[in-house]
Amino acid sequence: MRWTALLVLALTAGCARLDHVQIGSIDQSQGELVPVSVRLSETGFDATAAAEIGRIASRGKTAENFKQLRDILALINMGPRTGNPVFDDAYAQRLQEYLLVECPSGRLTGIRAIREAKTAGPVSGEIVGVDAYCIR
User: Fold this and answer.
1) Which of 71, 55, 131 is nearest to 99 (CA)?
2) pLDDT tens across 93-118, in order?
3) What average pLDDT does this structure show over 70-81?
4) I need a labelling partner for 79 at 20 to 30 A (CA). Which of 24, 36, 73, 108 fits?
5) Which pTM was predicted?
6) What single DSSP character describes residue 112?
């Protein structure tokens, strides 16, 4: 019963994480500025966290196997990275076409690029976005 409660808690607990923000300067001399914002997200999965949940929920040799799997996955995924691996690596490439819908002139200033995530256990929503001003 206790392990079930811990497993449910681990799967339902969530948080937001900001991975990266980059801000550009604002040029007010070119015309009227209209704020635009575009966000795209894709589902990510952290296999290391899933193996840890399996370790917590199991006992004996099975728990040891989950621990070894968790350690191997952690070693494989070492190094600099932002966010969890996603199912569609090209999801952020559609950002430009959505920006052109919001700003038909294609002239942007004050660009703020954002990379963030919202996590719930081993599953995450990996989010990229752009906030900017469209020059009309």
Assistant:
1) 131
2) 889 899 999 999 989 999 998 888 88
3) 72
4) 24
5) 0.64
6) E
